[in-house]
Give the backbone structure.
Amino acid sequence: MRPMLIALLAAFAVGRAYAAPLDMETIMADPDWIGPPVEKPYFSVDGSSIYYLLKHDGNKVRDLWRVPVQGGAPLMLDAAAQAQADGDPVFDKAHAHAAFIRHGDVFWRDLGNGRTMQVTRTDDGEISPRFMADGRLQYRGGDDWYIYDPRSGISAKAATIKLGDDPDQRKDDSLTDEQLKIFSTLRGIRADKDAQHAQDRALDAADATRAGRPFYLGKSVAIVDTTLSPDGRWMLVVTKPKGHDDGTAPKITHYVTESGYPEPEDARTYVGRNDGAPQSLVLLDLSRHASFNLKTDALPGIKDDPLAELRAKAIARLRKAGKDDEADALKAPAVRPVYVNSEFGPGVVWSDDGQNVGIQLRAYDNKDRWIASVDFSSHALVSQHRLTDKAWVNWNFNDFGWLKDGRTLWYLSEETGYSQLYTKPVGGKATALTTGKFEVSHPALSPDGRSFFVRSNREAPTSYDIYRVPVGGGSMEQVTHFKGMDDFALSGDGKRLAVLHSSSYVPSQLAVVDVSGGTPRELTDTRKPGYKAMQWVEPKIVQVPSSHGAGTIYAKYYAAPGADVASRPAVIFVHGAGYLQNVHQSFPAYFREQMFHNLLVQRGYVVLDMDYRASEGYGRDWRTAIYRNMGHPELEDLLDGKAWLVKEQHVDAHRVGIYGGSYGGFMTLMSLFRAPGEFAAGAALRPVTDWSSYDQEYTSDILNDPQIDPEAYTTSSPIYYADQQRDPLLIMHGLIDDNVMASDSIRLYQRLVELHKKDFWISLYPMERHTFVHADSWHDEYRRIDELFHDKLGQ
C-alpha cells in the first residue's frame, strides 16, 4: 500500500501546482512564448511619457515603445514615429533646454517654445551630450569632442589630437645643422616654412573662428579614452603603449558554417599570458595649448607590493630550477601599473562647472582602487580615497561623482565589508551616508542635488528596493516596496521614478512611482497569455545553517505544495558566475532552469538553489572567502545544503543530484571529484576545469597570476582531482564558447580517459557559445540532464 499512497500524495500535490503538465518542449522553447522583459526605460523630455525597449518576437531586434506616465495602452513606435521620438534627455542648469541622441545624432530642444534642432547628421554615432556651464553643448564622436554653440549654430571640434611627433618641436641633429650651414637654398626653404608657421600661429591666437592647433601625443601611444571638461578648458586623455603584446590568442573553430568550411576564430588570451597594457593620463590645457603628464607615483601605496611574500617564493623556486630569466620577469615594478577603472565604473567624472575632475584608478594586481582629483595649478593627481583589499577590489560598487557644489565627491566603497555611500569634500574628511550589513548600489543624485536614490537590500539580503538618502546625512527612507526592484530612472524634474521590477515568474515590468511615495502605477504587462495561464511552484527562500562557521546560507527551495513524502530524491542547482546572486525575489537570470526545476518537482523531486560563498549580495567576506581557494568554501556550503535537505526535508541522502553551468559547472566537478559518493550524479555545463586557461581579469583577481601563485591554481582546478571521479558525470559544452572554451571540457575528458574512469559522457554543441541561444540546443541539453537524473536518482 505504501508505494500507492506515495504516488497518490505526489499526484495530488502536483495537481495543485500545475494547471497542465509541464513538458521539455515548452520550457526550453524560444523564450518569446513568455513575453519580453522591459528594458532601458527613460522619461520623455516633457516627462509625460516613458520610452522603453522590448525584444521583437522571432529575432534580436529591440522595438521602441512609449507609454503615458498617467497610464494607458503602450504604443510600439514604427519607423516614422521613431524618427520623431525623444532620446534619453539631458538638461541645462536652468532646465530651459534639453539635448538627446536619436539614431546616433545630436538634437537640441528649446523647452520654452518646443522647437527642436538637429545638431549633427553623420555616420559617426555621437554619444554623451552634456550642457556646459555657459549654455553651450558638448558631445562626443569617436575619440573627438565637439562643442555646439546655439547662438552661432556652429559645431566645432574642441581639440584635435594626433598620434605623432609635434613638427613644432623638431630637434635638428648635427647633420641637419651642417646641411643648413653649407646650402643657402635649404636655409631659404627653412625660412619660408618658419615664416608661414609664425603667421599661422598669430592667426590662431587672434582669430577665435579658426580651429585650434593640434595636440601631438607622440608615436608610441594609443588612445584609450578622452573626456572634456564642462567649461571646455581641459581635456583628459587616457593612453596606453602602442603595439602592446596582448599575448597569444587560442583558437576556436566553427564547424557548422555557411561556407561549408571549418572557420577558425581568435578567442581571449589565458590568465598570466597577457598582463594588459598599463595606462597613462595626459591633461590638455585647451586655452593655453599645453599638455601635462599626470604621474601616478604619488598615490598612497602605489609602490607597495601586496604579493611580496608569494612573489619571493615564486622567484626562489624559479632560481632553484635554473630559470633565471623567468625569475627576473617576476620582479615587482617600482611603481605598480594602473588603469582607469571605466570597465567597472564611470572612470572619469567632471564636476558640473568643470572646476574639478575625479579619476578612478585601479592597480593591475587588483588590490587597490584610488579616486583622485587633479590639482590644475600643479598639474598633479591628488588622492582623495584609497580602497585596499587583500583579496581583490570588487568589480561592482565603483560608482562615484560630484555633488552640485562641484567641490564634494560622492562614492561607493566596500571598506566596512558592505557597499555603502560616502561623501567627501576635496581634501576633507569622508562622511558615511549609509551604514549597515547590507548593500547599496545604483546611486542617482536628484536634479536638485538634495537626495540620492539608491538600490539596496537593507530589508533582507534577498529583497531589493529603492531608498532615498539625504545628501547632508540622515536616515534611509524606503520609497518602493516591490522586494524585486531591478533598476530605475529619474524624471528630469526629479519628481518621479520609472521603475523596473519583477518577481519569480514575472519578467521586468515598468511602473512609475512618485518620489514622495504612494501607490505605484503599473504601466506594462508584457507576458504572453499562455505563460500567464501557467501555475508555478513559488520558490521558498530558506536559511541553511553553515557547519563551517559561515553563518547563514540563503537558498531557494522548490517542492510541490502540501507534499510531505519521505525519502524523496533531490537536485541541487549551482548558479554560475561565482559572484552572482540568484536567491532573490526578482525574475532570475536562470529562468529556464527555474522552469526545469518546476518540471523536476512535477516528477517528484525537490530542488535547492543556493547562494554559496562567493555569491553577490552578502558583503565582502562572503565574496572573498574563495580567495586562492576556489571550489572549497563553496563545496562546504553545498554539502551543508544537502545535509539540510536530508534532515529537514527527509530527502534520500543516496539520491541527490547536482548540476550547474559555467561556475556552476566548475562546482559540479569539484563536488563530484572532491566529495565522491556524496552525489548520485552530476551534470557540468560549460565548466571551467583548469583555471590557468581562463581569462586574466576574473581569474587573476581571485587566484593571482599563475606564475606568482601556482599553488592557488592547483588547489582550485578540478582537473587535478579527476582521479577521484567515481560518480556518473555528464559534461556539456558549446564548441564555439569564447568565454570558457570547449578545450576545458575536452582536456578533462581526455584526463578521465587516461585514468580509465567509467560513467562519464560528453555532449558538444557546434553552434553554441557560452550562453546557449538556440532552442534546439537548450532542449537537447536539458533532456540529457533530465535523463541522467531519472536513470541515476531513480525517479
Remarks:
- Residues 712 and 766 are 32 Å apart (CA to CA).
- Residues 184-206 form the longest helix (23 residues).
- The longest strand covers residues 651-661.
